[in-house]
Amino acid sequence: MNMQPGVSISSSSRVGAARIGIGGPVGSGKTALIECLIPAFAKRGVSLAIVTNDLVTAEDAERIRRSGLIDPARVAAVEAGACPHTVIREDPTLNIAAADELEARFSDVELILIESGGDNLASTFSLDLVDWWMFVIDVAGGGDIPRKNGPGVLKCDLLVVNKTDLAPHVGVDLARMERDSAKARAGRPLVLTNCRAGQGIDAIVDQILAKVLFR
Amino acid sequence: MTASLDSGLLVALQHADSQFPSGGFAFSQGLEASSQLAARLGACNFEDFLDVQLRHRWAGADRVALTRAYRLAGDLAKLTELDLEVEASTFVEGLRTGSRRNGAALLTTHSRIGTTGAAPYRALIGEGKALGHLAVVQGLLWRALGLEETTAVAMGGYQAAASLATAAVRLGLVGAIQSQAMLAKALPVIVEVSSTPVADDEPLRSFTPLAEIAVALHGSSGQRLFSN
Questions:
Q1: Does B10 touch chain A (CB under 8 A)?
Q2: Of B191, B151, B170, nearest in space to B14 by CA
């Protein structure tokens, strides 16, 4: 029985740009990854917009706007009210509204990247908000991160292990970290990246094109 | 004998619950700014801040807008006019924008779950024909859910107080348990200020200058956790 006279309980599919989440701990390189993804998607002819969730004001949004890589109007910032998990999971409405607004303003947008505001390993994206999401960890954060079995690492559609170039400098056995990641994810997708050198970026774009945009 | 449950009460609990996705967690109504600017504007005591917000903002402005919106019974054209009144009577840009974003976020959830009037009003906002201030949206939606006017007002007052309390906890101004004691003290205030009748054309009034000055000063700050 529906006890709410004004509510018609039905599932409805959304029509519009695909939305993907980019989560991961503070400092893991999410913004740097986005700065690599923007030109990579441009090369493949994918029209983008971006929503950032900064912990404090619009730091990441401003960085992307000033990068010269994308029309600054296509970048929206959503404050997380000190709750970076809430804004992408328990209450994603502000992000949904921001993405809807970008979609309405730029009718050619095919893909909206939604960057979380810096999480811990327990962070996950609501599927109310995104169609697919990746989780970014980095080598300098510790080679044991994949073994901690955080929900972010386990549940994401794609795990990105970033800053591979730092492995020898921080005492991390990269091959072991890759094996541990693959084991934790039971064979689900995993990409190693070094954003400073652009390594691994095409592999991420390929995944998104195939699994999200069906190209 | 088992007493029968009031389904309206359950609906009210669902929609007043902070778990209901509404975006409200991202707004502090000037509490963050007031606490950070205490050296310039004077000490910020959360209990006093809460009392001032309820008596001098919510009672005469948000409560009135919510009540009037409720009585418009889904008349979207008249709701857009009321929205303009809220816009004109909210002096500080950060509070105006916050109220609109919070209203849009609440409408987002209701549009998806199919609450009557939500999708059309959201479309008007998208077309630039409505502003979607929170109190107006609350009145529209809670009426559509079949809730009583007094229940809708109670929900609005409770949410105003509870969201400030959670913001105070996240800002480290009070503890989570302490905040509940303060919230309990605020409930009679909500009852008291809600006893003032609202005419169908009641003007919107508020007077919270210190909080507004704090929001205005804080607007360009690079160190904000909350939207306002």
A1: yes
A2: B151
* Residue A199 bridge partners (DSSP): A194
pLDDT tens-digit profile of A132-184? 999 999 999 999 999 998 999 999 999 999 999 999 999 999 999 999 999 99
- Please tell me the pTM assigned to this model: 0.89
User: B70 and chain A: CB distance < 8 Å anywhere?
Assistant: no
Q: Do B225 and A55 touch (CB under 8 A)?
A: yes
Best-predicted range by mean pLDDT (A55-59, A143-147, B4-8, B68-72): B68-72
CB–CB of A57 and B101 under 8 A? Answer: no
How many C-beta atoms lie closer than 10 Å to residue A203's C-beta? 15
Which sign, positive or negative, has the C-alpha torsion B130, B134, B139, B143? positive
- Three-state helix/strand/coil letters over chain A: CCCCCCECCCCCCCCCCEEEEEECECCCCHHHHHHHHHHHHHHCCCCEEEEECCCCCCHHHHHHHHCCCCCHHHEEECCCCCCCCCCCCCCCHHHHHHHHHHHHHCCCCCEEEEECCCECCCCCCCCCCCCEEEEEEEHHHCCCHHHHCCHHHHHCCEEEEECHHHHHHCCCCHHHHHHHHHHHCCCCCEEECEHHHCECHHHHHHHHHHHCCCC
| Whether residue A49 has pLDDT greater than 70 | yes
CB contact under 8 A, B22 and A57: no
Whether domain B43-212 has CATH 1.20.1090.10: the reply is no
Q: Using CB atoms and an 8 Å cut-off, which of residues 97-126 of chain A contact chain B?
A: 97, 100-101, 104
* Inter-chain CB proximity A91 and B117 less than 8 Å: no
CB contact under 8 A, B225 and A56: yes
Which of chain B's residues have a Cβ under 8 Å away from the Cβ of A101? 126
Cβ neighbours of A7 in B, within 8 Å: 113-116, 145
pLDDT at residue A66, rounded to an integer: 85
CB B164 within 8 A of CB B53: yes
10 Å Cβ neighbour count for B175? 11
